[in-house]
Write a structure and sequence with these properties.
319 residues; 13 helices; single chain; alpha/beta
Length: 319
């Protein structure tokens, strides 16, 4: 297998879901190219990369490219994998630097959020990188990208059998706040105990009810997993236009929970037969009655969605 240098953004869940490969001999996982450098280098990098100082340093930032590279103890090919949020680094002729230094290297960009939500020229990205991956199958087909599902690393948690609530939801309100409230009311009306953690809700839009929690910042990802482990059911409400596998999908499956989702594309996948997945295009009394009578399957999760599979997909397509 190739060597991989992965450029991640700072969200804490990336270090968790990529945990299976972080620290491996052939993988560098980088959030900041100067995280292990001396104080002077860190300070210099911060100053030169400051957007407020673009007018001074923008044309000189290519001089920092040496800081992004890493060494390996073998001569195998190096794959430089960039998450979407690190695309600004590429604008400083970084990919040219890699290609000049390692003629057989592979450059890859991976989108793990919907492109439609981003103001981005996808054709430009495709021209910059050797491979471009997307977590959402419909988007990948639309833009002629490589489909690569969101990875997930299983972490053993304590007391996963001690379930304290029926339905757990966490997410930003976005354009779906009304839908979140409707599903909450429907579930509670049917006797389900709900714990919903909703971010980015203005005070005027907040409804005070037991089980509704408004958070000003995201839960840490480990805290989220602990809440998943304490619930019987994980609720997933997809963004408009999305059909890809999400972290909610993998969390429910990995910790043997029922996934209640409006991602009906899952009905056309093997997940429905293998795991506890209930997908409806509309949450109504009929859907909730099916939830009530759902016979939970027992299985042993075998880390089927590990990021090692993502690396294999890249290796295969990069031949």
């Amino acid at each position: 297998m190739s060597n991989f240098v992965i450029y991640s953004t700072k969200e804490d869940y990336y270090k968790v879901i990529y945990r299976d490969i972080i620290g491996k001999e052939n993988v560098w996982f980088i959030v900041s190219p100067v995280e292990n450098r001396c104080l002077f280098i860190r300070a210099l990098y911060k100053v030169m990369m400051s957007p407020k100082l673009d007018f001074i340093f923008k044309r000189f930032r290519y001089l920092l490219n040496v800081l992004y590279d890493r060494k390996f103890n073998n001569e195998d090919r190096i794959v430089y994998l960039f998450f979407y949020g690190r695309l600004p680094w590429v604008d400083n002729r970084l990919l040219e630097y890699f290609k000049k230094k390692h003629k057989d290297c592979l450059t890859v960009c991976y989108f793990q959020d919907l492109l439609v939500k981003k103001n981005i020229d996808i054709e430009r990205v495709k021209s910059q990188f050797d491979l471009v991956l997307d977590y959402d199958e419909m988007e990948a087909n639309k833009y002629d990208l490589i489909y690569a599902p969101t990875p997930f690393s299983y972490i053993k948690l304590d007391d996963v059998s001690n379930e304290e609530t029926d339905v757990y939801f966490v997410g930003k309100a976005k354009e779906r706040l009304h839908e979140i409230y409707e599903v909450f009311d429907l579930l509670t009306a049917h006797g389900f105990k709900c714990d919903f953690y909703i971010a980015d809700v203005q005070e005027k839009d907040q409804i005070k009810k037991t089980g509704l929690h408004y958070i000003n910042k995201s839960l840490s990802y480990l805290e989220n997993l602990k809440k998943v482990s304490k619930a019987k059911i994980v609720l997933e409400l997809m963004q408009t236009g999305a059909i890809g596998y999400t972290l909610r999908t993998w969390e429910a499956i990995a910790y043997n929970k029922i996934l209640l989702t409006n991602n009906t594309s899952l009905n056309n996948t093997p997940l429905v037969e293998a795991y506890n997945v209930l997908a409806f295009d509309k949450f109504d009394n009929t859907a909730i009655e099916k939830l009530k009578t759902c016979k939970k399957k027992c299985y042993t999760y075998k880390n089927e969605f590990s990021p090692t599979k993502l690396l294999k997909i890249i290796d295969e397509h990069g031949k």
